[in-house]
Amino acid sequence: MRKALLLVLLAVLIVVPVGAQEEGLPDFIKHTPCEVDLTGQTIPIYHLGDISASYAFITQPLLVGLTDAIAYYNARGGACGATFEQVNRDTAGDPAQSQAAYDDFSSREIKPDVLVLYASGDSELLRTQLAEDEIPVMISAGSVDGLYGENADEPGWVFASNPIYVDQFGDFCEFVAANPEMYPDPVIGYISWPGAFGEAAFQPESIAYCEAAGVDVLDTPEYFLPSATDISTNVQNLVDNGANILYTNSLASGPVIVAKTVVDLGLEDDVQVAGVNWALDTSVALLSRTAIGSDGLPAVNGLVGSLPFHWYSEPDHPGIQLVVSQFEANERQLSQRNISYLLGWALVDTYVELYAQAVNQAGSLEAVDGALMKSILETIDYYPLDLYHLNYPDGLRSTSANRMAMIRYANADMTGPATSGDDALKIDPGDGTTLFVPLLIPLEDFAPAPDLRPGQ
Amino acid sequence: MSSFAQTQNPASSAAFDARRAIKWFLIAVALVVFLIWLAPYGMAQKPGRLVESAIRGVLVGGVYALVALGIVIINKASGVFNFAHGYMMLAGGLIFHAFFSVAQVALIPAFLFSAFVVFMLVTLNGWRMLRDPRRLVIGAVGTALLTGVLMLPGQDWQLIRGFVGGGLGAAALGLAVERFTIRPLIGQPLFTAVMMTLAVGEVLHGLTQMVWGSVEIPLPVFDVLKRIGLPERLSIDGADTWLDVSRIVFNLELVVAFVLAVLAFIAFVLFFRFTNVGLAMRATAENQQLAQSVGLRVRVILAVAWAIAALLAAVAGIAQGGATSLSQNLPGLAFYAFPAVLLGGLESIGGAFVGGIVVGFVQEMSRRLFPGLQVDTELAPYLVLMLVLVIRPDGLFGQKRIERI
Amino acid sequence: MSSNIRPSGVFDTTYSDDIALNRTRGEKAVSYGIVALLLLIPLLSLEGPFGISLVPQSLVGTIIRIAILVISVQGLNILTGYTGQVSLGHAAFMAVGAYSGAYLARQFGFSFWLALPTSALFTGVIGLLFGLPSLRVKGFYLSMATLAAQFIIPWTLRYPLEHISNGSRPLDVPVPDLFGINFGADGAMYYIVIPLAMALSLAARNISRTRTGRAMISIRDNDLAAELLGINVFSYKLQAFFVSAVYAGIAGCLMAFHTNNISLEFFAPQVSIELLAMLIIGGAGFPLGPMFGVAFVILLTQNVIPALVPSLYSALPSLLPFLAPVNVFAALNPLLFGLALMIFLIVEPRGLAYRWEILKISWKIRPFSY
């Protein structure tokens, strides 16, 4: 019942192209034409990462996205006729297990030509080994250490498809400085999870960049554990020191508890919440349904963050139409309709393009190796499903196009965002909560994020 | 509880008294030095914020106390330290959620669930109970009753359904854990059983993952309280008073969790005062084989302890899940309650409560006074624990062991 | 345990016979054979000099990881298995070894060969410090005092010593160098780690045969009785803490130089609990316990379960159609590990080494059962 309701809702929200192409890919996908036919061969998509521990919120939908995308592309010719298969390995977030999984992959008879990672910790751990074994890696949002090494001066074998976290933070400051009517006298307080991921954006480079743009950043960040019961003190500390913007580099429950605390402390009018691209996600928007602000909408309503790709709430976008139609055809759960599902699709599309180029250059699938893949990645200029721009000029290892967007909730007629709880579209999912329909509203066009690697 | 501390009465010579005086003098001096060192940090804060942190610390401590209480019960009965407690919290919360957040439970799941719960309860003392026809009848009636309760439809019965289903489900979970994993290890080295709890934690991790996945599940249990008219948050206005801050706010969730902890604490103190089970548990923990040979039903005692612990875990899981959400992050909370257990003393119910409050208080205060350094979760509770253990090796209220050769 | 049970009529006639490591020529041959075989393995892999792939390359990495943890768990065995002081802070001591080794190599250009003993000794001193509560605190309370080390040490590394440790970011560690030979490749590192692991295991075994070892065992069995016998309990406990931390320091330092990149995630509190689990599984207080335990857990989690997962994943979702396949996939890892551990603990609650001893005895006194 509940699932059916949600599916109906989705179908209404986004106009599904009726009678989509049964055979062959839609026209907007422009892969390099293949000169070699690989029909009958298989290309494994190797992925290792934390699927069962703290980052499972984003890796499980990734797997679902990969599954659906692989089925879709395989039915439409795969990569030059070759079909994809998924090889996933769960490391439970344990570096020793990541190492073991990598050893297993890299010592196979046919070494992986390219590897998918999702945790920046894994990319940091494997950085030198990847260079030794000549295996390039595709990652979603990497860390400076993983992409460029400890001194940030050696572009390695890891390629990120989103801007790195420091760049996102710098870009946010740029946005704040450019919108004084939205953010008068901005002072940013940094509040996040402890650890490599949570602390990644709070670096001297990003702080200096913000200060130069006229946005103050408080010297003392606040860190809270994902299992924390109450973070009022953390928020209060920052607000007492003058912060009126809270920036969080966390995901799932992280941004929700920050926004909820702001509401609980009655600071809604004085303090705004912002975050990394993972904070702008369906999981965050849905989880917030038990934390309602004084306007009757979930507390994360109005959260601003990076959205370096096109999103489900842009129904005119052909790539989004394709992903959504397949999402519905496969009857996926609403909670899986998030970033990682989308990026899983983009990833498989990237694979098709990479292999088309590689096979054209090498002549056969056997002749494709990691070094070739790396050279292709270094010169690639491609728009996976038209969702984002994949290119790495001048030794960069992450993409730089970024934009800010805001979490809002749909109004009752579904013509735009609701202004308060009264005119919002509310659905009873049958579990005692009220479901609001999240929208991510882009606030600006894509523009290059600043390059805030240390030493630049 | 404190009577244990006072009965220690070795050689009461003058030399001993002098040593004792010196010890307490040194402790007092250290305390004064510590307070002088701390004072500037405290002075930098507004008084209202310090009061706020103190109260919030005590309230947060309520959750820790609930967690610690569950760990202490098992330890009291079997001497086993339960590493699976975090996942028992999550599992309990999820079972509660399963009954709480649906419009109505279907017949077959309700029946299967009831049958399982009743089966675990009836066979408390072993499978042989199944041969007794009287018990079978009781079991059948119980199953029917429970199925009926669980199938009560609509939101009005939500809370009843949730607590009956969640409570009994958690108890059955505790019984199952004890029956299938701990009972085969009676008489084996203690640490084997401790490692078994680790395995239980992993299995519960896998099972919760398998059924509910990794999504974070909101648990709107506190909405029910709001619906019956309780205020969403308590607020103190201190703008023009000595507090010097405009508003101090406490969430309903925290207050309710604290009240739950107090109620659980009172219930268990009464339970252990007015029944022999507490004494039997201590005897069992001391020596399982000996306890059995003097006629104590070790298996029943262990089973009851695990059921109670699982129940407490579920309550803590519901409180925490309601305040945040039910997710795979929740078990991590148990890790941070470990110092609370030890601080109070492994065997002491009151100690667990005090330990929880102390840990919550220390965390909030250090979060307030030393921001940004994660002193609150990583350092402060453990420093306090080390200090307490060096002064009182059995915790604040722990049972002083009299060792013989 | 009773490894000197022999068929009736066979006795040790001299003291050196009684404490001999290898009692029979057969045992001696087996020990040397295992050593030789272990040393041969990398030569037979694809990256060896002969280029034959008799042994899968990933096995070399697995054996190195096992050997490093064996060193660490041998240390834990001295503290927990022989002296009876349960430690939940062992991973933190490994962190001290790893970070001090890395710091010496990076900052002062210490070679690996100098950094290893220095960091080991330093870790030993830190271990002494955290062993001090054992003067007053016993049993599970002491375990929690050591768990405090597990939080205090990483905190110190992360915040006050951030300039040394890189905080929560990873730290690069230089590749060890021996007479110009670079030890970057797994195969070369193998010949540092394996002999060290053997030597240190042998040393641990020998400690248990000395006066110190016997004193430690008496403390484990009954510390009051030991004290009455004139054993300085506190001194021996501290010695155990020191030796145990030195082992952990060596293991940590080796880990740092092996992975060439460390972060505090390697030494999370769960790792300490896992190390203890390995010891219990292998058999605490048995010289072979650490080897059995580490090999069991590592092979299970890193080889057996990953090999089982794909086939189970293709079978299970169709058997459980009401569950999402991705949930099933994510559940397999913890579920299989937990179940394996459970079954193992019920079948063999005293550890693998205990079963091994029984097997050995029944082989020696065959065809009689006792």
What does this entry look like structurally?
The complex is a heterotrimer of chains A (456), B (405) and C (370). With 456 residues, chain A is an alpha/beta fold. Chain A is built from 14 helices and 19 strands. Chain A has two domains: 27-163 and 315-402, 3-Layer(aba) Sandwich (Rossmann fold); 165-307 and 405-448, Rossmann fold (3-Layer(aba) Sandwich), CATH 3.40.50.2300. Helices cover 36% and strands 15% of the residues of chain A. Among the domains of chain B are: 68-104 and 153-329, no CATH class; 331-398, no CATH class. Chain B has 16 helices and two strands. Chain B is mainly α and 405 residues long. In chain C, helix 3 crosses helix 12, helix 4 (90-107) packs parallel to helix 6 and helix 9 crosses helix 11 (233-259). Chain C is globular and about 60 Å long.
SSE topology:
The complex is a heterotrimer of chains A (456), B (405) and C (370).
Chain A: H1 2-13, E1 42-49, H2 56-75, E2 83-90, H3 95-106, E3 115-117, H4 120-133, E4 137-139, H5 144-148, E5 158-160, H6 165-178, E6 187-192, H7 196-199, H8 204-212, E7 216-217, E8 222-223, H9 232-240, E9 245-248, H10 253-264, E10 272-275, H11 282-287, E11 304-306, H12 318-329, H13 339-362, H14 370-379, E12 381-382, E13 390-391, E14 401-402, E15 404-409, E16 426-427, E17 435-436, E18 438-442, E19 447-448
Parallel strand pairs in A: 1-2, 1-3, 3-4, 4-5, 6-7, 6-8, 6-9, 9-10, 10-11
Antiparallel strand pairs in A: 11-15, 12-13, 14-19, 15-18, 16-17
Helix pairs in contact in A: 2-13, 3-4, 6-8, 13-14
Chain B: H1 2-7, H2 14-43, H3 47-78, H4 85-100, H5 107-122, H6 133-150, H7 158-182, H8 190-212, H9 221-227, E1 233-237, E2 247-251, H10 252-274, H11 277-286, H12 288-293, H13 298-323, H14 332-344, H15 349-369, H16 375-391
Antiparallel strand pairs in B: 1-2
Chain C: H1 15-18, H2 25-40, H3 57-82, H4 90-107, H5 112-131, H6 139-158, H7 162-165, E1 171-172, E2 177-178, E3 181-182, H8 186-207, H9 211-221, H10 223-228, H11 233-259, E4 261-262, H12 269-282, H13 289-319, H14 325-347, H15 352-364
Antiparallel strand pairs in C: 1-4, 2-3
Helix pairs in contact in C: 3-8, 3-9, 3-11, 3-12, 3-13, 4-5, 4-6, 4-11, 5-11, 9-11, 12-13, 13-14
